[in-house]
Write a structure and sequence with these properties.
The structure holds 2 protein chains of 2 kinds. Chain A is of the alpha/beta class. Chain A has 3 domains: 212 residues, Rossmann fold; 103 residues, Ubiquitin-like (UB roll) (Roll), CATH 3.10.20.600; 92 residues, de novo design (two linked rop proteins) (Up-down Bundle), CATH 1.20.1440.230. Chain A contains 18 helices and 13 strands. In chain A, a hairpin with a 2-residue loop joins strand 11 and strand 12. Chain A is globular. The two termini of chain A are 38 Å apart. The relative contact order of chain A is 0.12. In chain B, 47% of the residues lie in helices and 11% in strands. In chain B, strands 2-1-3-4 form a 4-stranded mixed beta sheet, covered by helices on one side. The chains are: A alpha/beta, B alpha+beta. Chains A and B meet through strand 3, strand 7, strand 13 and helix 14 of A and helix 2, helix 4, helix 5 and helix 6 of B.
């Protein structure tokens, strides 16, 4: 079956000729009309629309956005904050970059609607330090919106006031974890907080109730406020509503960003029809479906079981190409949709070296707060680096697995899982490459195969 | 600590964004580093005083966040993304080419003081791999040939200091 057409909701204007990131262009294209209507409604109605929409967070965990908002402690009497998580750092993910650089007002409109719906009067956009241009673009967009009375003390004459500020990070992946981000915003090292009791919705920024939402998620809020939660929920598939931006990178002919209704496209359609298939003369070998921490999938493996289709249970028997790209299907087969970053590797890539690259990332980025993660991520890096640059032993695979198995579930935040899952899944699916790596390494390296570590 | 009036004004503005002064620590570190090139002990103490916190609370940020540095770097800063998508498309070759062309050992200032070449982790532009940031500007699909031409541009700009790239 050929791939469906893209459905561009968030990226509608991203590649349009002449579309610029200033307020005038945004307004010419109908910008801020949704905010104008939203501030005439009751805030609770907008929260209800988002609940009805079934929107799930696009940052990685896929947590329902409306539920997140409904957990806010609204009775504490403390101010409520919105923190926009623009710390896009999960390797393989690059969707928020294009929203910020090319359509910043869409993010601001979604953010101000979210603030209005939740009675937030101060919002911070935490943008990763590596986007200095993006921070300037957002600051200029905020200044423009402020001049037009779309942000500020009396938005569109309603008496409702909200300020939005840009806060730059400084190169630490862990700031994408919401409680680490909050610590960082408070001017500290971004050590994630333990939950309970530090659920951001109750004890977040400055110990006040706080919403932390991903950039793409907040853009979806704008479209939900526009079309209504029920209409939005009809886009995509049940429990996996709306559209999703897939960021495809690695060994495909046409890498890039593609927006589809969630669950309406399979991995095979995405990689073969949309991205043009493998590079000339190569074959797909492995794909990481949701950012580098998601468990790897091996082309050729089968996934079998029973799943819910409507009200009945049906059997499924999928190859990697058959997997629908939605949160639930990917979770069902033991990986995740995560941040939408799809990293493709073909038969030229060594899985030992690819894992060595990933392990180097996670050991660099572990915040060091929890011993299993700090030490474990470092040892996984050291072992894979030794296998590549020193001597590889048949027992290294099981050794790596035993280290990974001692990290997941034993840390304050989900980084423990994020750094263990690659090792666990690479060893489980490509164990023979690890046990046979010494022999493979002894053979001359084929021309043009890049080093990965 | 001597800072320009523009930087001092930006510092005053940014502190006002937050209900608690300490939140301005990262913005102040960025502003000071942008002007001074790196974070000295003097800068740590100055920022601490400005935010009414202990110097250790600033120093611990400098040692944690990868973007802050305690030593000067070259006049131009070449940051090559090392993470998986870029590596799959040849980032290690790109980085080696920059080192060779600019005579800069990885992570150190070149002997002429002109350039620092570094590996960094994911720059979030994986679809146009391999990517490189030179100072604040992103360059996409930088293969070895492109690394050579970018290196030439850096070297040419160094010889003519009036023409700021």
């Amino acid at each position: 079956m050929p791939a469906p057409e893209q459905r561009r909701l968030i990226f509608r204007h991203i590649d349009e000729e002449g579309y610029s990131n200033d307020l005038a262009c945004y307004v010419r294209n109908g910008g801020y009309e949704v905010l104008r209507k939203a501030v005439q409604r009751k805030p609770e109605e907008i929260v209800d629309e988002v609940k009805k929409s079934g929107l799930r967070g696009r940052g990685g965990a896929g947590f329902p956005c409306g539920v997140k908002w409904s957990l806010l402690d609204r009775k504490s009497g403390k101010p409520i904050y919105l923190v926009v998580n623009a710390d896009e750092s999960e390797p393989g993910t690059f969707k928020d970059r294009y929203i910020i650089y090319r359509d910043p007002h869409q993010l601001l409109e979604g953010s101000v609607i979210t603030c209005f719906a939740n009675r937030v009067e101060r919002a911070f956009i935490y943008i990763r330090g590596e986007f200095p241009g993006g921070a300037k673009i957002l600051e200029r967009a905020i200044a423009e919106a402020r001049m037009a009375n779309l942000i500020g003390p009396n938005i569109l004459g309603t008496g409702y006031g909200c300020e939005v500020y840009v806060h730059r990070g400084a190169g630490a992946y862990i700031c994408g974890e919401e409680t680490g981000l909050i610590e960082s915003l408070e001017g500290k090292r971004p050590y994630p907080r333990i939950k309970p009791p530090y659920f951001p919705a109750v004890l977040g920024l400055y110990q006040c109730p706080t919403i932390v939402n991903n950039v793409e998620t907040l853009c979806h809020v704008k479209h939900i406020a526009d079309m209504g939660g029920e209409a939005y929920s009809r886009i995509g598939t049940p429990n996996n509503t709306g559209t999703r931006i897939f960021c495809v990178s690695g060994h495909v002919r046409r890498p890039g960003y593609y927006e589809f209704e969630v669950g309406k496209i399979t991995m095979g359609q995405l990689l073969n029809d949309v991205c043009g298939g493998p590079l000339p003369g190569r074959r797909f070998k492995a794909v990481i479906p949701g950012g580098s921490s998601a468990k790897v999938l091996k082309f050729g493996e089968r996934f079998k079981g029973k799943r819910k289709a409507g009200s009945e249970m049906v059997e499924y028997d999928w190859g990697v190409e058959d997997i629908p790209m939605d949160f639930d299907s990917l979770a069902m087969i033991g990986t995740m949709g995560g941040s939408g970053g799809v990293i493709v590797m073909d038969d030229s890539a060594s899985m030992v070296e690819a894992l060595g690259n990933i392990n180097a990332f996670y050991s660099h980025e572990s915040c060091g707060q929890c011993t299993p993660c700090r030490e474990g991520s470092l040892w996984m890096k050291k072992i894979t680096a030794r296998m590549v640059h020193g001597s590889a032993r048949p027992e290294d695979g099981p050794l790596l697995k035993s280290v990974a198995d001692q990290i997941a579930g034993r840390t304050i935040c989900a980084f423990g899982e994020a750094c263990a899952w690659p090792t666990q899944s690479f060893i489980a699916k490509f164990g023979d490459e690890f046990s046979g790596y010494a022999q493979k390494k002894a053979a001359p390296r084929p021309d043009g195969v890049p080093e990965l570590i | 600590m001597k800072l320009s009036p523009e930087t001092l004004q930006k510092i005053d503005e940014v502190i006002a964004h937050y209900p608690q002064r300490r939140s301005a620590a990262l913005p102040l570190l960025h502003l000071v580093q942008e002007e001074a090139g790196f974070i000295s002990n003097e800068a740590v103490e100055w920022i601490a005083e400005r935010l009414q916190i202990q110097p250790i609370n600033v120093y611990e940020l400098v040692t944690f966040y990868p973007m802050f540095r305690q030593k000067p770097i070259g006049r131009r800063h070449v940051k090559v993304c090392r993470t998986l998508s870029c590596a799959l498309m040849g980032a290690y070759r790109t980085c080696a080419e920059f080192q060779k062309q600019l005579n800069a050992p990885l992570g150190e200032v070149s002997p002429d003081g002109e350039v620092t070449v570094e590996f960094v982790e994911c720059l979030a532009s994986c679809g146009t791999a391999p990517v490189v940031m030179i100072d604040d500007e992103l360059h996409e699909k930088v293969d070895a040939a492109r690394a050579r031409s970018l290196s030439d541009e850096i070297k040419a700009a160094g010889r003519a200091p009036a023409a700021k790239p």
